[in-house]
Amino acid sequence: MSEYQQIDILYAEDNPADAELTLYTLKTRNIANNIVWVRDGVEALDFVKRRGRYANRVGGMPRLVLLDLKMPKLDGVDVLKALKAEESTRGVPVVIMTSSHEETDLVKSYKLGVNSYVVKPVDFDKFAELVTEVGLYWMICNKTPGL
Amino acid sequence: MAGDDTNGTMHRPFASMPPRLWFIPLVFAAALTLLACVALLAYVSAQQNVDDDRWVDHTYRVLNITNQLLSDYKDAGSDSRGYMLTGNDEFLRPYRRIVAALPAELNQLSDVVQDNSLQVLRVTQLQELARLRMQQMEQMISTRRAATSKLNGQELAQLMESKRTMDQVIDIMHGMVQEENRLLGVRRADALRSRHVTVWFIVAGNLVSLLALLACLGLLMRELAFRRRTERHVKALNDELAARNTLLEASNRELEGFSYSISHDLRSPLRAIDGYAKLLQARAGAALDGEGKRLLGLVAENIGRMALLIDDLLAFARLGRKALEPEQLDMSAIATQCVADVLQVNAARPRVMVAPLPPCRGDRTLVRQVWTNLIANAVKYSQQSPDAHIEIRGRVEDGECLYSVTDNGVGFDMQYYHKLFGVFQRLHGVEEFPGTGVGLAIVMRIVTKHGGRIWADAAVGQGATFYFTMPRTESAR
Q1: What is the ipTM of this complex?
Q2: A18 in contact with B, Cβ within 8 Å
Q3: Whose CB has fewer CB within 10 Å in chain A, the N or C terminal residue?
């Protein structure tokens, strides 16, 4: 294992079914290799800030944070706010992937500086397509500064 | 009229017997008439009193003159007798004076008794006797002048003669005085009686008027109390209605919130089911036989259907929560845009004609939804027709804007018209034409929210026309 391991995606999702389907899609379509899956906002922040059970984790900042809105303990909005508040983490792209297309959630997220907001479709084929598109875009098209 | 108790079965716990309202003005009018009569009577009586007083005065005047005349006669008589006895000219001076004044006095008396024919007759007699008397006295005086100091037989006879005449005069005058006194008494009694009658009438009239007015007052007060009770009852009913409305509104909002969150929360597990089913299909599909594949296919199909249902239900619920934001809408532009949108996601290519449409007032997003749904329906149900043709028209009628979407597709049976706009109600099988049956329910809800109406006309195999109205301008709710 090299000193520096590229964390491709930090994926925060509490629903195991959604998580499984997303991870399955990302893996089978070779969009990302190193994906870290956390189940709630606290774990997500712990990972980023290297504390709690992730105090001695390897690797740098993830290249993309994929966030669900509705999670127990800290929800997506709280994580987003925390990430964008710190200088050290502001540069990390955050994509919110949620079932909610409530106007209020959209407005709130963009106010806090989210990089992208997508809605999970019910149809699996469409869902897989979305994940693929989002993943490919942020992994391959989009450029981020080295962190 | 609030006072009519026309429906005996109506429950009126708060009023014994509502008063007849027409009775009040009648009684009041009667009271007023009575008062007017009383006033008139009082006036007439006053006039009568004045007249009576005048008559009494008149009578006194007559009496006065008569008495004056009587005393003058007596004076003249005594003066002449004095001269007859003494031959002294001293007696003649006053005598001459009185005699000169007598005719005038008699005339005066004649004038004042013109009202009484009996008295007039007497005056005439008096005038005659006066003349006679004067003659006699002149005779006596001249005889006396010519004669010596002693009264002779002739002179005595003359004296007696004149005395008899004098007595006659005095009798007549007494008669006149009596008559006038009698008249005075009669007139006084009449005046008194008429006054009594008048007073009785006035008192009675006033009393009756007073009673009538009191009756009116009583009736009015009762009516007032009745109305006040009704008012209170109505207010109580209104308050109850308002309270119920508030409850209803709260319940509605709760229901809408409920249906929204349900639809929303149903999506997650649905996504999971679809995902796992498809993964299963991908992984084990090859190992399945025809029947297995068919069953799995049905799972996927039903998931798709459920997803659509949830979407439609969500859309329908969202309608109730959204507040209307009305603005002036260019319906031609919106309709044309919606046609383009619908055809973009639909492979069908019917001929679409959009006629010039009058502008109206409404919520842009919701109205777009209406057009989209109606046009999508028209396109969907005319797909199977070889020469699919859709017409969109609009015109102003009776202050509203009336729009229509006509297609020449499969139409529907008007027998089931009542189901047309129901939620999840469909008139065609899902195999023939996909859809959940909420599209028209959504359209109806939107149109109704704007204060408009929607209806349809169709025949099986001959297409359908959907009509809806929208408010023209600022009068929208």
Answers
A1: 0.81
A2: yes
A3: N
